[in-house]
Structure formats: structure tokens, C-alpha cells
From TrEMBL:
Keywords: Signal, Transport. It holds the Pfam family SBP_bac_1. It comes from Terrabacter terrae. It is found in: Cell envelope. This is Extracellular solute-binding protein. Transmembrane segments: none annotated. The keyword Transport applies.
Amino acid sequence: MTFASRLPGSTRRARRTLVTLAALSGALLVTACSPSAGGSSGSTGAGGDGNVDLTVWSWRVEDEAAYKKIFAAYEKSHPNVHVDFKAFKATEYNKILATGLAGSNGPDVPQVRSYGQLQTTVASKSLLPLDGKVDLSGWDENIVASAKGKEDGKTYSVPFARQTVQMFYNQGLFEENGLKAPTTWAEFIAANDKLQAAGVTPIAVGAKDDWTLPIVHEVVAGARFGGKAFRDAVVSGKKTFTDPDWVASVKVVGDLEKYMPKNVTGVAQTDAQTLFSAEKAAMIPGGSFDLSVFQKANPNMKIGIFQVPPAPGSPSGSPATTAGWADGNFGVSAKSKHPAEATELVKWMTSKEFGQMVGEEIKQISAVPGVEPSDPLLKQMSDNYKNSGSPYLLLTDFRYGTPSGGELMGKGLQELLLGSKDASAVSQDLDTGVKTWFKPSA
């Protein structure tokens, strides 16, 4: 239902028509400098009847229908508010958002990036601090950190979901080959060997897209470098990325290359996903955000997940681990014409009602404590993170400068798989690169 359709009576319809004509006339003057020509942009302002239009921008084009359903639920409990959700192409979003927030036609509530990628937006003073207005106490510290300014420690946004990485597998292919999800490294390697002998690609990897490779590393070797314990040590300066356990974890990726598609550095991530969805590959390392992609691509495939067991030599007591982080957040624009109403909407995003709908409609793990996913695989991912989780450290802690840890690691792992660098060189390059800007916490 649109805002206009909720105004009763012919008088209001006539009044609304005049207001709309005036707005359209003004819009013709600003279209050329609008960051989203062809679509509505900023908030329209409240009429004399107290009704308010709020705009929400996002890079999640694929979630547009889901978000419109979610915000329709909000409108039912806030009948004076209409939420207009606009999604833009992810690769163009950062520029579009920066332009919108700097001008007068930006969103009231922007979806913003997390951790290091949030800092530019914070530094531009484009967001209102939310301390004292939203309550994130009791939330996972790793998730809350994604929403804060690095310099001032203030909260500028609310995380909308948690992401995790794990190994997806085709249960049907495993069963056909007499296999179960491995619980030891020996079982994992044996499964790879058996699948390969049966003519099935064991692990689908798209190494042409270097951003995927740090995920592969976390999935197959998180336990080998020590998970959260290593993260705490490297952030505090007690260890570096030249530590023997880290180097050994990088080597694990190279050792598993023989189970990946041939010429893996020429395989795109979309090709790897197709291999898995077409049931030509038995496993694929991926994020919780990939689940709905796989389910839609092949609804008949029975998908399972598992944590890759610790590789030989893993630090004592280092269990199989699930790395996690907050992918993005929602904030309040400093230029919103309706800061109180926009803040109220973002505050609602800390509620279990919103969190449950994120799980149901968007197929994401909610960031809101106490919200349990109804999808059994999402619940398993969430439980794994709760029981043996660790921060995805190259994203959560090493994105605050240039070159970022993820960029260095992605390119380094490509070179490892091409045979031009060994694990020690890749680790040294990572360590040298982040030290140009990273300062230990202690």
C-alpha cells in the first residue's frame, strides 16, 4: 500500500494530487544530480496529518521483496510511517551512498558496511551516533564491533545479520560413495580421495576471484592457525602472520589444491557454485549467505554442512572452528529530515520481531540475541559459531587500512596456487603489508 492510498476521502486525494504535482515539478530540477536517477531518493517530509515517508537504501537487490515485506510489518505497528526501500547494484553502492549522504536526496536509513569499511562513512560525519538510543548490550562483541567508529568508539549503526563460513556438502553424493561428514582430518582426506576416484570434483573453489580465497583458508585451516586464540594473540602483538602455525595453515590450502577443479585460478566463483549446484562437485567452502543461492539453484539437492576437522599439527586444544562476522548494518543519516522516526526504525531492528523476519524472509542468521533460525542448516551454522566460533580476523580486524589483510591474503593464495610463492612468502607479504598501518592493541 502506498502513502497516497492511505489518505481517506476525495478532499485528501485532491490535496495529495496537488502535492504530488508540485513534488514532481521540483524533482525535474534535481534529477540530473540525483545518485539514483529514475527512482525516488530522499524522504518527502511529513504532511500536516503527521504522516512520514522514510527511505531505506541497500546493496541487497536480491532481498528487495523480502525487505518490503519486513517493512510492511513495521508500518502496521507504526501507521503514520511509510518505508520506501531502494536497492542498488552492490558494486556501485558505495559511490551511490556517499553521493546520497553528502547531498539532500540521500536515504534516511542507509545500509552501511561493517568494521573497516564503515570508517569512511563515520569520518564523513554522515551518520548520527546512536549511543543511548539503541541498546546492543548482551550482543556478541565481535558483531557489535562492526557497527562502531574505530577512533571514537561510538555506535553508529545496528548489525542486521551474522555471517559464518563452513564447508557445504552434497549429502546425496556422500551417501552414494559410502561417506559421512568427516570428524577427523584423516576422514576428510579419505573422503576427498574416494570422491576423486569416483570422478567427482571433491572441493569446488573459484580461485579466479581472489576475495573468495581467505574464506577457503578460514574454512579448511581455521583450526590449524588456532582460531580465536591466534586472533587475540596477533591483535595484541604477541604473534604475527609469520608465526609457524599461520604459515602452516596457508600451506594447507596449497596441499588441498589437488582436490579442487583443474586450473583452479582460472575458475570463477560463479563457476564453482555451478559445479556444486549441478552436483559435479561434492563440497564447497562458503558463507551462510550462500545457502539460499544453493537452495534456489537446486531445490532437490540435499545440502549438509560441517566444520573441517583440525589438520595435523594444529595447536593443542584448537577445535574445529566456525569463523563469523557482521556483514553490514543500518544507520541513521545525519541529514535525515526525520531523525526521530528514522532512529525509531533502526531501534526496531534490534528487536526479536525484526530478527526473526531476517531469518525467515532473507535466510540470514539474525544478529539479535535469542533469535533462533527456523532453517535447520542456518541453525546448525549459528550453533557452531556459538559453541566454537572465532572472528573472521582478516575481515574483522585487518580491514582498517590499505592494503587490507583480505586483499593481501587473496592475492597471496592465488600466487600459492599458481606455484609462484610458497606459504612462507605469502605469510611474510601479508605481515609486511598490514604492518604499514596496523598497530597492536597492547
